[in-house]
Write a structure and sequence with these properties.
single chain; mainly beta; Ribosomal Protein S5, domain 2; 3-stranded antiparallel beta sheet; 2 helices; about 10% helix
């Protein structure tokens, strides 16, 4: 039996200050449809542009994971996204009225608590999993950063 995708049952909001910008921000988590993934919506900008949380939109990873699409930025997205992934959420819409989520206490704790309070909703569509069958590695010579994917029977991450 395959695992099903998940979103949240109800929308929920948090407010705080962005770590790098110092701007006050209201962030609202909203349920998203099946196969949507994660996306940020800048409700403070005309047309409310949407930036999907995809590797192709990552522009900088120094002091945070920054996304940019068509000149619109989301800064320091990693704590919010880690909370969603850690809770097994697959589809989530994240509305913000500034470019950076609130830092809260510097962890994902408050995001996790908010998402749990919103409730997890199982959806009908199955999760599309990528099964690693061979070792895959990449090294950025400029920074010395390296990532290695290895086959495993269970989900496991080791960082150094």
């Amino acid at each position: 039996m395959s695992k099903k995708q998940q979103t949240i049952q109800n929308e929920i909001s948090l407010s705080g200050v962005g770590l790098h910008t110092g701007n006050t921000v209201k962030m609202t988590f909203k349920p998203a449809p099946e196969n949507h993934g994660f996306s940020f919506v800048r409700v403070d900008l005309e047309g409310q542009p949407v930036i999907a949380a995809k590797a192709e939109y990552v522009t900088n990873t120094q002091r945070g994971t920054n996304l940019e699409r068509n000149g619109v930025q989301i800064q320091t997205s990693e704590h919010v996204l880690a909370a969603a992934v850690g809770l097994g959420i697959d589809n989530l819409l994240i509305e913000m009225d500034a470019s950076e989520p609130p830092i809260m206490d510097g962890s994902s704790k408050f995001f996790i608590e908010a998402l749990e309070k919103a409730g997890i909703q199982v959806q009908e569509a199955a999760i599309k999993e990528y099964i690693v069958k061979d070792i895959i590695s990449f090294r950025d010579e400029a920074t010395g950063s390296e990532i290695i994917l290895m086959p495993a029977d269970e989900y496991e991450i080791t960082t150094m």
